[in-house]
Amino acid sequence: MKLIVSYHGGVRHDITSGKHRVVTDQPVEDGGQDAGMSPVELFVGSLASCVGYFVGRYCDRHQISTKGLSVEAEWTMAEQPHRVGQVTLAIHLPHRITAEHSERLLKVAHGCTVHQSLAVPAGVAIELNSHHRGGETIVKGAVT
Fold first, then answer.
1. Which of 17, 64, 85, 130 would you label with 6, given CA atoms 20 to 30 Å apart?
2. Distance between CA atoms of residues 124 and 61, nearest Å
3. Model confidence pTM above 0.85
4. Nearest to 89 by CA among 50, 40, 36
5. CB under 8 Å to 46, separation ≥6 — which residues?
6. Are 26 and 18 in contact (CB under 8 A)?
7. Rounded Cα–Cα distance for residues 104 and 110 (Å)
8. What digits encode the pLDDT tens for the residues 82-140?
């Protein structure tokens, strides 16, 4: 699987995956144009939307209405290193479900792919690849 992030000036970057494009930017007070969500908002939003997807699929399989389903996300930052420190997700279903469905639905939510990728961290390799031009050398390194 692969996607491309392209720089578009200032602090804006566009993410392209297949035929889809997402704009990331920073708020004006952080030097951006506020043309899209910040990468941190997109990160938290990815987690929340993955949980919403898993919950919606569970509801569909068990004939539970998904009308009004939403997932609200709140997060705090942490330091050393600077990162998202805590995310709290609130799943809202505007109608009652049984205690058994509630328990199973929460288990399914915890099993979402993005949540599991945080619970069991993925390895991350970062490489710098410069093109060889004239007398310049190619730079390549990896960080995990």
1. 85
2. 35
3. yes
4. 50
5. 114
6. no
7. 10
8. 999 999 999 999 889 999 999 999 999 999 999 999 999 999 999 998 765 555 544 55
